[in-house]
Amino acid sequence: MNYSRQHLQETAAILQALDVGAIDRMVDVLAGIKAVDGRIFFIGIGGSAANCSHAVNDFRKLAGVECYTPTDNVSELTARINDEGWESTFAEWLKISRLGESDALFVLSVGGGSIEKNVSLNLVAAIRHAKSIGAKVVAILGRDGGFTATVADAAVIVPTVNPETVTPHSEAFQSVIWHLLVSHPRLKTRAPKWESMAR
């Protein structure tokens, strides 16, 4: 089969298999955070880190929620990696940001971190810190969701339809789902530019 057709067919299969109930649970959690003027802190690695920057923009501008991501500050991030090590980077940044029980940690990750496999331990440390102080944890994940899925208050797992394309589909659907969230009537504060012009 033509690869382009195959990739798009996989995309369509994932769309049909997404757990709408899980997305709605995430809306519930985030609407609760917004109702108490809480903040959302996005964390991710690699392509997911880039998605965090975009999501921060959308949640701030379209949903009216104060949001941040540590990967937008490369100076602090690399200083912490150099001086303290990779594992503690996000957790220590969250402590300085005074993550609290009215806030949420939003994880974007393909694997969700794994203690057993020694993968993405900075995500694990950040999530443990969030849970220890009573902050909510929500996530958009791939595969089985790893450590994150076991402790999150709400997690959407992008279904695996082909083990050879887990990463591209997971990172693409992070964008699909967060755009759904900022467009959701319970979260949206203002319309995007083109939609507002059309009115």
Summary?
The chain is α/β, with parallel strands linked by helices and 199 residues long. It is built from 9 helices and 5 strands; from the N terminus they run ααβαβααβαβαβαα.
Task: Give a topology summary.
Layout: H1 3-17, H2 20-35, E1 40-43, H3 47-61, E2 67-68, H4 74-84, H5 89-96, E3 104-109, H6 121-132, E4 136-141, H7 146-151, E5 154-157, H8 166-183, H9 193-198
Parallel strand pairs: 1-2, 1-3, 3-4, 4-5
Model description:
The chain has a single domain, classed as Glucose-6-phosphate isomerase like protein, domain 1 (Rossmann fold), CATH 3.40.50. It has helices at 3-17, 20-35, 47-61, 74-84, 89-96, 121-132, 146-151, 166-183, 193-198; strands at residues 40-43, 67-68, 104-109, 136-141, 154-157. The protein is globular. The longest helix has 18 residues, at 166-183. The protein is of the alpha/beta class. A five-stranded parallel sheet has the order 2-1-3-4-5, sandwiched between helices. α4 (74-84) packs across α5. The chain contains nine helices and five strands, in the order ααβαβααβαβαβαα.
CATH topology: Rossmann fold
Radius of gyration: 17 Å
Please list the strands of the largest sheet in the order they lie side by side: 2-1-3-4-5
| Number of discrete domains | 1
In DSSP terms, counting alpha (H) and pi (I) runs of 4 or more, how many helices? 9
Name of the top-level CATH class = Alpha Beta
Give the percentage of residues in beta strands.
5-15%
Weakly predicted, low-confidence segments: none
Order of helices and strands: HHEHEHHEHEHEHH
Question: What do the pLDDT scores average to?
Answer: 96
CATH architecture: 3-Layer(aba) Sandwich
State the distance separating the first and last CA atoms.
43 Å
Q: Structural class, judged by helices and strands?
A: alpha/beta
CATH superfamily: Glucose-6-phosphate isomerase like protein, domain 1
Q: How many strands in all?
A: 5
The share of residues in helices is 40-55%
Largest sheet: 5 strands, parallel
| Spatial shape | globular
